């Protein structure tokens, strides 16, 4: 596997986005765009990326504005800047265009999006179809996110702050009102991230990772997380999703951002009702948010993804 460092100006007109191409030894059979989640970075997907590359795929991924190496190099941890989630999505469109230019338009193109990345993946798929008239071959949504706040006024509080020019660093008490409910079914809370996994090693690795965001966020960043969630799960959005793009969802039924499974099935039904022809949901009992990182599940998740991506590729051999 060869790894290429690339960078490009963000749509937020402030940052330089850091990204990578991962290329296989053989001629590639497709391209997979990996889109990471909120408060993390794409190198947390290194094991999965390696398997995708070994199966013959080029893998491409950014660290979003305000996240990972992009944040480190621009000194903007937890701060997405002006443009918000629309800038994040435009950056993913830019990466798509760069990859198509580098590797050609003939290769099948897929997306893997986890958590916040699953929202971005849904939006990216829609925009490629409706704005650029280009379609992908399939999208995997991992840790699907739906509106999970019981207090609908929270998003309005953050919207008002941003509109009033108060989108800077957010009071931790206010931010806690958004994220603390995710721990409702966790019996023992030590770090505050226990909702992501049942394996203690995954939880501790998440805490120790220096490129994860564990400090304060800007109100603008929190607002854009909530606003994208609201936008992508609106009935009007489902109607815009291209009906011929296959969708695979993988999730745990104890994931709070998927409303413990209910929200994941709600997304599946919303897509089907809007005419999307191929929607598959695989639910893993007793597991939480990061099913792709659980030691007992991670190979299963990779196999499901590759089976989905490779089902039309005769060249695929099980790794």
TrEMBL record:
Molecular function terms from GO: hydrolase activity
Keywords, ordered alphabetically: Hydrolase
Residue ranges constituting the Serine aminopeptidase S33 domain according to the UniProt record: 26-295
Keyword Membrane carried by entry: no
Keyword Nucleotidyltransferase attributed: no
Annotated Pfam families: Hydrolase_4
Domain of life according to the entry: Bacteria
Name of the protein described by the UniProt record: Alpha/beta hydrolase
